[in-house]
Amino acid sequence: MIVLDHVAKTFLTRGGEQVVAMSDVSLEVKRNEFVCLVGPSGCGKSTLLRLVAGLVAPTGGTVAIGGTRVTEPRDDTGIVFQAPTLLPWASVLDNVLFPLDMMGRLDAAGRARARDLLTLVGLAGFEGKFPRELSGGMQQRAGICRALVHDPDILLMDEPFGALDALTREELTIELMRIWQEKPKTILFVTHSIPEAVLLADRVVVMSARPGRVAEIIDIKLPRPRDFDMEARDEFQDATRRIRGLIFGNRGARKT
Amino acid sequence: MPHAESGDSSSAIAGPARHNARRWSRIAADIAQPVAALILFVVLWEVMCRVFKIPAFLVPTPSAIWVDTWKLAGQVSMHTLATTQTVLLGFLASLIVSLPLAVLITASPVIANTIYPLLVLTQSIPKVALAPILVVIFGSNELPRVVVTFLVAFFPLVLSIAAGITSVPPELIELGRACRASRWRELWRIRLPYAVPFVFSGLKAAITLSVVGAVVGEFVNADKGLGYLIVTSTAFFQVPLAWGALVLLSLLGIILFQAIVIIEQVFFPWAVDTDKQAV
Question: Do both B110 and B229 map to the same domain?
Fold first, then answer.
């Protein structure tokens, strides 16, 4: 579904310096696969997401979705950001409908789908509320609905639960798995939380920093549906330990 | 956003009755206290003037100001209307010019670098010094006064609108781009609505400055207006009347300022709240 072939991205700083955000990243994501990206800050996780979204162009290699090269944002991709960033002047429903409106595809079917999505994430009855009347967790639920409203086949999530408290975070993690089970999609999920990545993902892509590159890809063989009780399992513990070793081991090795 | 949650839970506990009582006590505190302080101030003023026998041409008593101003009520209201007109015309001009100017400045660094020095130049000119020259250019009529008002008021408005347009979270811009929205649509649907609270804080500054600008214009060249009234009445030692004009000017400023506050609350209630959170 998504193919990154020897992708490199170099940014120019304002001082004219070249900063290598990622170099030689190759990755293949299958249809309806749930892939998590973990790694230290500056490993280019968010850049990778934006490359797939078509928001930035690679300086080397190619990004392709379904065999077509990505050169600009495509209609069938949804994005969830770390902050919900809802429009403060629009109701929850209008916020969810915003992408359809911007694409000029607002119709009755879209409205119905928006209402269904809000019901799916437990926000039924909040359609007419304004973002400031919602808690952080509810706002992020609305943010997820906004990313799904045009029924994309790819969902890109950039630390979507990073700004939430631990309890809300667990709640939304379970909820995301339920949504994914009900409406299968290809999901690329960036996170700083190793347990979160292991619980959610079919495969965890561990990245290393400066320059950002793929250190290793780990298959998670836990059965589905999953829940937080699985954290006690050996497979879970082994996977988190390995990822930790890859991230912190590398850093230790570089220091010496 | 934790504000929203805590507000909800406390009002749920308090119930409607106690909520109402608290609201009334808050209104009482918000209005009654300032009014009481003002009355006390005026009374003290009156007493001081009488006890120390301060001559009316230095500091007139509030009662003398009232009597002298009321005697000429018809004339004074004509002057007040004239000043209000100048203030509003200059204010509207600054809004009409500032909005597209702010959009242009934020559109590209090249335009910003071209326009900014010119704007700073207009701001470094003392407006009082410019006013007589404007009278020569535009003639002895309303126009130079409106132009001075505009020149005094528009700059902070441009700055705050530009700040609003550029303060949009980058994620929202990315969302717009991901939906392949045109730059025009991005401006109209994301950037400008986002700038609304900033526009209003700029408008509040601009209306206050507009009153200043109008009076400056009237000092230099006018045949009516409260600024003109102050110049002529002091020239004829009608000092209480000049003080009356002063009081009317500050009232005018307060009323126009509050009008903007109310417009914001009625048409953009969400912006008022974000305003408060920012503070």
Answer: yes
